[in-house]
C-alpha cells in the first residue's frame, strides 16, 4: 500500500527538521506502508526531511497538480485504489488526491504558523467547514 503523506511539514512551518513525534510515527507506519511525501515545499527543506525520515520526497509539487501522484502510480506499478493521501489542506492535499480518485484523509493543521501562500486557502476552508457546514469534523465521506 502506498501512502503519500503530505502534512509532515505542518508540525512547525519553520522547523528545520521533523519533530521526534513525526519521526517515530513514520517509523511505525513504514512497517506496513510505503511512505512518500508529496509537498509544495522547497527542495532544500524537503530533501532534508526525506533524508531524516528515510522516505522518498516529491517537492515543488504544485498541488493540487496530480503529476507526482501519477509518477508514483507508474513507478510503483500500482493504482489509485491502493493509495491514500493525507493532508491538512483541502485545496491542495485533498483536492490533489481526489482528482485521481485516491482515498484522502483530511487532518486538522498541527500548527498555527502558516505560509502567506496558505492563508487564502485556509479562509476558503473555514467557509466550507464552519459557515456552510459542507465538511463536518470526524465524518467519513465516500
Task: List its traits.
142 residues; alpha/beta; three-stranded parallel β-sheet; two-stranded parallel ribbon; 14% strand; globular
Short account of what is shown:
By secondary structure, the chain is α/β, with parallel strands linked by helices.
Descriptive notes:
The protein is of the alpha/beta class and 142 residues long. It has 5 helices and 5 strands, in the order βαβαβαβαβα. It has helices spanning 20-29, 43-53, 67-75, 90-98, 119-131; strands spanning 2-5, 34-38, 56-58, 84-87, 103-106. The chain has a 3-stranded parallel sheet, with helices on one face. The longest helix is centred in the C-terminal third of the chain and has 13 residues, at 119-131. The protein starts with a strand and ends in an 11-residue tail after the last helix.
Q: Give the helix level as a range of percent.
A: 25-40%
What would you call the shape?
globular
Main pleated sheet: 3 strands, parallel
Q: What is the helix tally?
A: 5
Return Rg in Å: 15 Å
Count all strands and give the number: 5
Overall average residue pLDDT:
82
Detail the poorly predicted runs.
none
Order of strands, widest sheet: 1-2-3
As a percent range, the share of strand residues is 5-15%
Judged by helices, strands and strand pairing, the structural class is alpha/beta
Distance between the termini: 19 Å
Can you write the helix and strand succession as a string?
A: EHEHEHEHEH
Write the layout of secondary structure elements.
Elements: E1 2-5, H1 20-29, E2 34-38, H2 43-53, E3 56-58, H3 67-75, E4 84-87, H4 90-98, E5 103-106, H5 119-131
Parallel strand pairs: 1-2, 2-3, 4-5
Amino acid at each position: 500500500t502506498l501512502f503519500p503523506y503530505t502534512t509532515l511539514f505542518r508540525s512547525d512551518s519553520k522547523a528545520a527538521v521533523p519533530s521526534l513525534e513525526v519521526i517515530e510515527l513514520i517509523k511505525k507506519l513504514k512497517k506496513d506502508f510505503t511512505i512518500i511525501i508529496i509537498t509544495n515545499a522547497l527542495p532544500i527543506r524537503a530533501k532534508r526531511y526525506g533524508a531524516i525520515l528515510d522516505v522518498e520526497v516529491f517537492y515543488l509539487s504544485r498541488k493540487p497538480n496530480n503529476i507526482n501522484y501519477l509518477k508514483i502510480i507508474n513507478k510503483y506499478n500500482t493504482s489509485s485504489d491502493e493509495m491514500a493521501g493525507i493532508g491538512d489542506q483541502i485545496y491542495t492535499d485533498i483536492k490533489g488526491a481526489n482528482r485521481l480518485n485516491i482515498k484522502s484523509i483530511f487532518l486538522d493543521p498541527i500548527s498555527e504558523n502558516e505560509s502567506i501562500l496558505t492563508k487564502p486557502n485556509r479562509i476558503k476552508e473555514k467557509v466550507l467547514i464552519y459557515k456552510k457546514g459542507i465538511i463536518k469534523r470526524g465524518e467519513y465521506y465516500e
